[in-house]
Design goal:
By secondary structure, the chain is an alpha+beta fold. The protein has six helices and six strands, in the order H-E-H-H-E-E-E-E-H-E-H-H. It starts with a helix and ends in a 6-residue tail after the last helix.
Length: 135
């Protein structure tokens, strides 16, 4: 823990989410906070809310939900290994995300995309069947 963190330093929530690489841009992080996809200690915050070390965050991004504890503060976006040191994800959250990932992989297991584009004859057959969207 650095000296600034021990003195109760804080960073804006949207800046921290961007620096921790949960969102690509700060404006996407701000939008996620404003639309209720981020909770701080079970409450819906504003994007300008100060984040401190030790706080619990729940972040929804797409189908995934992260339960993390803030371990460090940063206002600058750095490399991914540095960003991963800013938070600690709970084991339950990791297991839940792995299970959802496995379910999505199993759901698409039966689909085999075509190896190449249909040729002229195949396109004519597709049109004759009336499935114009499959081109």
């Amino acid at each position: 823990m650095t000296e600034a963190e021990s003195l109760g330093a804080s960073v804006r929530l949207d800046v921290w989410l961007w620096a921790a690489r949960f969102f690509r841009t700060r404006s996407l992080a701000k939008q996620a906070v404003e639309t209720g996809k981020v909770d701080v200690a079970g409450q819906r915050p504003k994007s300008s809310r100060a984040v401190r070390v030790g706080e619990q965050l729940q972040i929804s991004r797409g189908d995934e939900t992260f339960d993390v504890q803030v371990r460090g503060l940063s206002e600058m976006r750095g490399p991914a290994p540095v960003a991963q040191q800013l938070y600690a994800e709970s084991e339950a959250s990791r297991a839940r995300r792995a299970e959802l990932r496995a379910q999505r992989a199993a759901a698409r297991n039966g689909y085999q995309p075509p190896e190449h584009r249909p040729d002229k004859r195949a396109r004519r057959l597709i049109r004759a069947l009336g499935d114009i969207d499959a081109i």
